[in-house]
Amino acid sequence: MKHEKYLLKTCVLLFLFVCVSAAPSVYAQSGPPGDIEQSIGVGFKALVRHGSIAGFNARYWSGGNFGFEGGLLLKSHWKTIPISGLYTLTHVDTDSVYIRPYVGGGINMNFYKGIDNKIGGQGFGGAEFTVKSFPKLSFGGDLGVHSFGYGSGFMLGLNVHYYLK
Known about the structure:
The protein is mainly beta. The protein has a single domain, classed as Porin (Beta Barrel), CATH 2.40.160.20. It has 1 helix and 10 strands, in the order αββββββββββ. An 8-stranded antiparallel beta barrel has the order 2-3-4-5-7-8-9-10. Residues 20-28 have low confidence and may be disordered.
């Protein structure tokens, strides 16, 4: 587990470095975007590894760089309620696409077969992409370590959010 933590931190920092350095400096900005207003979104999230878990998800971004995410992920014999804090240092704002790289972490409340409840954790880094012609819809992905109280490992997260506000 110790090696997974170091590898996760390295992956997150590398991903953020690539996102920020790949964009021309004129497009990288701090704070909220000028012409995209996204604060409260609902959608779908899937965590993919050997076995996948998927479900509903909600995301909230404050007017600054902080956000929160929570949801209900279901699999045949267990369900998870993940709650995460999110942070974005910068965003990339081009003529056609808005990209918000982020890091996050939090807890996983796990309910296995309705009788065995466990607490786990999560840490991840990723990005959310919004095509400006559809400013209320975002697609994204992240990579991180997820612990479900009875097992942990790297998982790829895929998500889609529709922003109500």
